[in-house]
Specification:
Number of strands: 11
CATH class of the largest domain: Alpha Beta
Shape: elongated
Radius of gyration: 20 Å
Number of domains: 2
Structural class: alpha/beta
CATH superfamily of the largest domain: Glycosyl transferase family 10, C-terminal domain
Largest sheet: 6 strands, parallel
Order of helices and strands: EHEEEEEHHEHEHEHEEHHH
Distance between the termini: 22 Å
Oligomer: single chain
C-alpha cells in the first residue's frame, strides 16, 4: 500500500453536529475526513494548508490559507472567497468538483460502492403499513406543498415535520418514520440542475419509494426506474394518477423495488474516488 500523503486541514462553518476535529474518534459526522483519510494522513490544525468550509457561518473569513468551499444547498460558489469548490453544480471549471449532497449522504451511511441487495418484495409490502409521508421543516416550498395537498385527496399523507404537520407531534427518528411508508414525498426545497440531496437517498435506504422533484437531470446520477420521477409527468394530475396506479398494482410496485438504484455505469459524481482525486490534484506542489 502506498504511503499516505500528509495533509493539514481545518473545517469550519458546517451544519450542527458536524465534527470539525474527529481526530481519534471512531464515530463522527465528517464524511470528508473519512474519505480523504483513505489517501491522506490528515492532521487538524488552526494553521492549516487548506480550509474546508460551508455556508453555516462566517468563521472562514479569518483564514488566509487556500479555501475549499462545500455546499449541499442550492447556492453557487463565490470564487472571490475560495480557491476551490465542491458542490452539486455542473460547472466547467478546474477549480470545481461536482460531489452532491446525495453522494455525501451515501457515505454518511457507510455505503462505499452500492447498496443494491436482494429485495423480498412481499416482505417489504408487509412492512409498509402506511401509504405516504411528507417530512419537512421548511414550509416555503410551493411545489411539494401543492403535491401534498392534492395527493392527500386520494389517501392520507402523514406530515411529521414542522411543515404542514398533521400528526400533532414532530418526528424525532426520521429513518424509523420513513420505514413505515410505501411512498415518501422527496421534493427538494427548490429546483436546479444537479441539485440532489439526502431527500432522495434516505427513503431508498429503508425501501420507501421516493416521489422526487428538484433536479431535472437526476437521471444522470440515479436510475429513474427505481423511483417516481416527477419530471416524467406534465402536471400534478398525471403524477398522482401514476402514484395511484402503482399503489393499486403490486406488479408495478415490485418492479420499482427490484430496480438498481444507480445508473449503469455508476455516476462518477457519486464516487468517493472523485473527491480523493480532486484533492490529490489541488494539493500538488
Amino acid at each position: 500500500m502506498p504511503m499516505k500523503q500528509p495533509l493539514c486541514l481545518a473545517f469550519t462553518d458546517f451544519w450542527e453536529g458536524f465534527e470539525c476535529n474527529p481526530t481519534g474518534k471512531s464515530h463522527f459526522d465528517n464524511v470528508f475526513y473519512k474519505i480523504l483519510s483513505e489517501r491522506f494522513d490528515i492532521t487538524i490544525s488552526d494553521s492549516p494548508e487548506f480550509l474546508i468550509y460551508s455556508v453555516f457561518g462566517s468563521n472562514h473569513k479569518r483564514y488566509t490559507c487556500p479555501k475549499v468551499f462545500y455546499t449541499g444547498e442550492n447556492i453557487r460558489p463565490n470564487f472571490r472567497e475560495c480557491q476551490y469548490a465542491v458542490t452539486f453544480d455542473y460547472l466547467n471549471d478546474d477549480r470545481h468538483l461536482r460531489f452532491p449532497l446525495s453522494a455525501v449522504t451515501l457515505y454518511e451511511w457507510g455505503i462505499l460502492d452500492g447498496f443494491d441487495k436482494h429485495i423480498d418484495c412481499e416482505q417489504v409490502k408487509r412492512e409498509k403499513i402506511k401509504f405516504c409521508n411528507f417530512l419537512f421543516s421548511n414550509p416555503n416550498a410551493r411545489e411539494r406543498n401543492t403535491l401534498f395537498q392534492k395527493l392527500s385527496k386520494y389517501k392520507r399523507v402523514d406530515a411529521g415535520g414542522r411543515a404542514l404537520n398533521n400528526l400533532g407531534y414532530y418526528v424525532d427518528d426520521k429513518m424509523k418514520f420513513l420505514s413505515q411508508y410505501k411512498f415518501t414525498i422527496a421534493f427538494e426545497n427548490s429546483e436546479y440542475p444537479g441539485y440532489t440531496t439526502e431527500k432522495l437517498v434516505h427513503p431508498k435506504l429503508v425501501n420507501s419509494i421516493p416521489i422526487y422533484w428538484g433536479n431535472p437531470d437526476v437521471h444522470k446520477d440515479w436510475n429513474t426506474k427505481a423511483f417516481i420521477n416527477a419530471y416524467e409527468f406534465s402536471n400534478h394530475k398525471r403524477l398522482i394518477e401514476h402514484i395511484m396506479e402503482i399503489d393499486q398494482n403490486d406488479d408495478l410496485y415490485f418492479a420499482l423495488l427490484k430496480q438498481p438504484h444507480f445508473t449503469t455505469p455508476k455516476s462518477y459524481h457519486l464516487d468517493r474516488h472523485a473527491l480523493i482525486s480532486f484533492f490529490e490534484r489541488i494539493t500538488q506542489p
